[in-house]
Amino acid sequence: MNTKHRAYALTEILVIIVMLVVLMSLSVRPLRALVSEIPRSARVCQALNGTTKALRQLRNDIEQSVRIGDFKDGALTLEHNDGPIRYSFADGQITRRPAMNDPSAEYTWQIPDLKIEAKLWSRNDQPYAVELTTWNQQKTSGREQISFKQTTVFFQKGKQR
User: Would you say residue 160 has pLDDT above 60?
Assistant: First the structure.
């Protein structure tokens, strides 16, 4: 019984190794981009979660307000039966300060890379809604990248039209 075992030639093995090296060199750049994108995506998701919580609280306060006060210097005042509530908007944070002078009642949402623009909707010089535009702005690869830009309008209950 004569059994022949066929072996690979040295040139065949070298060709396979060269092909693997070429494929790996082509896939390094997308793999590196994917690995660097994961932490940025996690930060964006965390920022969206914080933004959602802050906007939910703001919506509840606007709906329960007796009157929407003024909007000056990045701060919105809402009149409630218990007294005014003041929201301060700055890049990267939203702060809620109730009327009582209790520092423990103040709450700040730290939201990195968050940008905010606010505007009041008025009728007959009386505000009835707040328009907020929020977006996430990060510097990646030397350029500004804007993502998740959204505009939300919160109406005072019974005042929308």
Answer: no
Q: Which long-range contacts (CB under 8 A, 24 or more apart) does 94-101 make?
A: 94/54, 94/58, 96/54, 96/57, 96/58, 96/61
Angle at 76 (CA atoms; ends 50, 44), nearest 5 degrees: 20
Which strands, in side-by-side order, build the sheet including 93-97? 67-72, 75-80, 83-90, 93-97, 107-110
pLDDT at 159 over 60: no
Q: What pLDDT does residue 153 have? A: 92
CA 52/CA 145 separation, integer angstroms: 20
What tokens were used for 48? 């969206």
Q: Encoding tokens for residue 66? A: 């007796």
| Distance of alpha carbon 54 from alpha carbon 70, whole angstroms | 19
Helix (H, G, I), strand (E, B) or coil at 82: coil
DSSP letters, 101-129, are --GGG-EEEE-TTEEEEEEEEEETTEEEE
